[in-house]
Specification:
Number of domains: 2
Helix content: 10-25%
CATH superfamily of the largest domain: Alkaline Phosphatase, subunit A
Largest sheet: 8 strands, mixed
Number of helices: 15
CATH topology of the largest domain: Alkaline Phosphatase, subunit A
CATH class of the largest domain: Alpha Beta
Distance between the termini: 96 Å
Strand content: 15-25%
Length: 572
């Protein structure tokens, strides 16, 4: 009789355990565009208003030392969704195309879809494309490969910042619009669609990605989001310091001193730009609030991992810079928040509310983190470390640095918990102690007392770096072929500033290495590149700049002046 009872009890327990198995966790993957640390929980600007970002951070783990893989949209987003950083893929720049550089890459949504998930997205997740093959569903329709829904566009532009010339990005402008959120469309429509997917039942776990476009330019949002920021109350960014570039190497100064910030100052629009950026963040926060409210009302609220990240930061006058594309912390450091519910396969206890992690982490690590959390097979061909140990214990040992790759293999930044190192292609270096100097005002790279730390940081760089992938901006784009002007008896012209960006493809048909040197406006030689024998090299430049070719003995062999269209230059 006892054996029968034991058998009956065992059968009951077996049936109880199999009747309602714990379903795999869902993933809500939220991207925000061009957002720096100006959210309340990161303390980047004292006037920002971000109650929903802060609420999400308080409910999960906030990574206060998270860094983007690259300080521009395309390489950063590609690295995050592929798990392959730029120094391995060769995709370093916005002008490159994902599927020409990485034709066979299986991105995160497709990997999860292959392993039992329904993968859907809305809004900007990659760089101005959807990549239809990676998704089961998308809004707007993935067949169009355009991630942007209807968005209100003022009929007459610019509204506040005049266009100075073809060098100026047409979306660099700002204004308070007299429209409702629904009339504005854009992120309102994106979050509406995401909310609808959260509200319904699903017959399989989901990977649901939401791309919130603001605070990306143009900083046009409904006027109600400007109202908390009266113009006469606007404070300048805390990281602004006069003379901050004085100890920065020449390449860093060149990257910093683009034409946007002087143009904005000339038209007395600095505070207006700050106001508009704050308003756009406030709008993005409201859109995030819509998504979080939809999740909280949904049947999936207790079984959904939430991940929020920004692709890179943004300068608003720090380092005399406006825009992105730099290795400094204001651009490389980004919001990252992760909340894991109880019952996740790799973290049964879930994340503890209010966790704060100061370890240096890269967003490229999200791929491996999510596969481990969901017990999805690890993808073998990526370079991504799982953050699960830090989600379990934010103070756990983490012997890794975070790499932020700039536009070329030799331009990069490295971050540890206390130190930051920036390296430029001409050998220029920067070193900062962010405990003592969080705004990176004092470059310690030339200080003898920091020589050992400088040497240590150098060792953290990747040993192998892929060159810029030469299929971009597309070999067929180089329809023009320039001939080198001979140097015998001629003086190469000085460079002319003020041109527009253009890409040149140098094809070295010699068997020996040649050197490519840019001349400045005075004719002096500036940064240089080597082009090895029987190889090619892409160079990003601007029209009107003069490039001098030298042989191995530094003898001139010719020069070209950058034209207004992509061109090939044969070196024979």
């Amino acid at each position: 009789m006892k054996n029968v009872l034991r058998l009956s009890l065992a059968l009951c327990l077996f049936l109880a355990g199999t009747a309602h198995p714990t379903p795999p966790p869902n993933i809500l993957f939220i991207a925000v565009d061009d957002l720096n640390d100006w959210i309340g929980c990161l303390g980047g600007h004292p006037q920002t208003k971000t109650p929903n970002f802060d609420r999400l951070a308080a409910s999960g783990v906030l990574f206060k030392n998270a860094y983007c893989p690259a300080p521009s949209c395309n390489p950063s987003r590609t690295a995050i969704l592929s798990g392959v950083p730029p120094h391995r893929s060769g995709l370093y720049q916005n002008t490159q195309k994902l599927r020409e550089v990485m034709p066979k890459a299986e991105l995160m949504p497709r990997w999860f879809s292959r392993h039992g998930y329904w993968s859907a997205g809305s809004g900007k997740l990659l760089h101005y494309v959807i990549d239809p093959q990676s998704w089961d569903d998308y809004f707007p329709a993935k067949a169009n490969d355009n991630p942007f829904p209807r968005t209100f566009d003022p009929p007459k532009r610019p509204l506040n910042l005049p266009r100075e010339g073809p060098w100026q990005y047409s979306e660099t402008d700002w204004a308070a619009l007299d429209v409702t959120d629904e009339q504005f469309g854009g992120d309102w429509l994106v979050t509406k669609w995401i909310g609808e997917q959260l509200a319904r039942e699903h017959d399989q776990p989901f990977f649901l990605a939401c791309g919130i476009y603001r605070p990306h330019e143009p900083w046009f949002v409904p006027k109600q989001y400007f109202e908390p920021f009266p113009l006469d109350s606007i404070q300048l960014p805390p990281g602004v310091k006069e003379g901050d570039l004085d100890d920065v190497p020449p390449v860093g100064q060149k990257i910093a001193r683009n034409r946007y910030f002087p143009h904005i100052q000339q038209h007395q629009q600095w505070k207006q730009g700050i106001q508009a950026y704050l308003a756009s963040i406030h709008f993005a926060d409201a859109m995030l609030g819509r998504v979080l409210a939809a999740l909280e009302k949904s049947p999936h609220r207790d079984n959904t991992i939430v991940v929020l990240w920004s692709d890179h930061g943004w300068h608003l006058g720090e380092k005399e810079h406006w825009q992105k594309f730099t290795g400094w912390r204001v651009c490389a450091r980004v919001p990252l928040i992760v909340r894991v519910p109880k019952g996740a396969p790799a973290l049964a206890e879930g994340t503890r509310a209010g966790g704060i992690c100061t370890r240096p982490v890269s967003l490229v690590n999200l791929f491996s983190t999510l596969t481990e959390l969901c017990a999805v097979p690890a993808k073998p061909d990526i370079e991504s470390l799982s953050l699960v140990p830090l989600l379990r214990n934010p103070s756990a040992p983490w012997p890794h640095a975070a790499l932020t790759q700039l536009d070329a293999p030799e331009n990069y930044a490295l971050s540890t918990e206390r130190w930051r190192y920036i390296h430029y292609r001409d050998g220029g270096e920067e070193l900062y102690d962010i405990d003592a100097d969080p705004h990176e005002w004092t470059n310690l790279a030339t200080k003898p007392e920091h020589a050992a730390k400088l040497a240590e940081m150098r060792t953290l760089a990747p040993k192998q770096r892929a060159p810029v992938h030469e299929s971009q901006p597309g070999i067929n784009a180089f329809v023009a072929e320039l001939e080198l002007a001979p140097e015998q008896g001629t003086e190469p012209p000085h460079s002319k500033s003020g041109g527009k960006p253009v890409t040149l493809l140098f094809q070295n048909h010699k068997q020996t290495t040649v050197k490519l040197v840019r001349l400045d406006e005075t004719g002096a030689r500036r940064e240089s590149h080597e082009i090895k024998g029987a190889s090619r090299r892409l160079v990003q430049t601007t029209t009107g700049l003069t490039w001098l070719l030298l042989d191995q003995a530094d003898n001139p062999i010719g020069h070209i002046v950058a034209p207004d269209k992509p061109a090939r230059i044969r070196i024979e």
